[in-house]
Specification:
The chain is α/β, with parallel strands linked by helices. The chain contains six helices and 14 strands. Helix 1 packs across helix 2. The chain is globular and about 55 Å long. It binds ribulose-5-phosphate (5RP).
Length: 233
């Protein structure tokens, strides 16, 4: 899990608020990242102190481990058809409640859980709110290692600037929980989100992009002057 060092007080407020939206009996989709860390922390408190009965479906090895350590029962994602509520962080959020995710390279499972969720909530501190997706964060794209050359060629053809995400304290590229690589693409406004997403997704070997278009029903944005809620109409 990424460290919660920046804006951690704001992240905590959003994470704790989201954990309080979970109901007894819910199957809960648990995202990944330093904001979700606080969601899990408060959820565990409710499980252990209030006797809240829930089951978690997690989006990464890190989130599974943390849920397990804190006493939240975890189900395998393939054993459920839907989740009642899913909560996840974001890297960029625009005014249409569309989001870029994948800072933790977990966007593929995160998108599967988002698609299974009856209610999907994004939690973030105010630094994630941007005028356009990509303003402060590159677009992560998970790619099959054997398709790296083809995908790079196609992205070059589309005139996009990109970089293979490299490991820290590891030689070579980051390897996702699914055994794949991540390419981070620099986005320059103006562009059409839906068209770009579909062009990238159509390249053979692309597993998933970090564009989450039309998924978030509610964004809970933790700002210095309090929590702000944005709801999809
Ligand atoms: C992981 C993600 C995270 O939710 C996103 O990177 C936000 O992380 P944080 O809450 O640490 O800022 O998409 O793949």
């Amino acid at each position: 899990m990424k460290s919660a060092s920046s804006n951690s007080e704001l992240k905590k407020q959003a994470g704790y608020w989201a954990a309080d939206q979970v109901n007894n009996g819910d199957v809960v989709g648990v995202g990944t990242g330093s904001t979700v860390f606080f969601f899990i922390e408060r959820l565990a408190e409710r499980v252990n102190k209030e006797g809240l009965k829930i089951k978690a479906v997690t989006t990464s090895f890190q989130s599974s481990c943390l849920c397990g350590e804190l006493g939240i029962p975890v189900l395998d994602i393939s054993s459920v058809k839907y989740v009642d509520i899913a909560v996840d962080g974001a890297d960029n959020i625009d005014s249409e409640l569309d989001v870029i995710k994948g800072g933790g390279a977990a966007q593929t499972l995160e998108k599967i859980v988002a698609a299974m969720a009856k209610k999907y909530i994004i939690i973030a501190d105010e630094s994630k709110s941007v005028d356009y997706l990509g303003e402060t964060f590159m677009l992560p794209v998970e790619v099959l290692p054997k398709a790296l050359s083809l995908v790079s060629e196609r992205l070059d053809g589309m005139g996009l600037e990109y970089a293979l995400r490299m490991g820290k304290a590891k030689d070579g590229p980051v390897v996702t929980d699914n055994g794949n690589f991540v390419i981070d693409i620099k986005l320059k406004a103006p562009y059409n989100k839906a068209e770009l997403n579909s062009s990238i997704t159509m390249i053979p070997g692309v597993v998933e992009t970090g564009f989450f278009l039309g998924y978030a029903q509610t964004v809970c944005l933790a700002c210095k002057d309090g929590l702000k809620f944005l709801n999809r109409k």
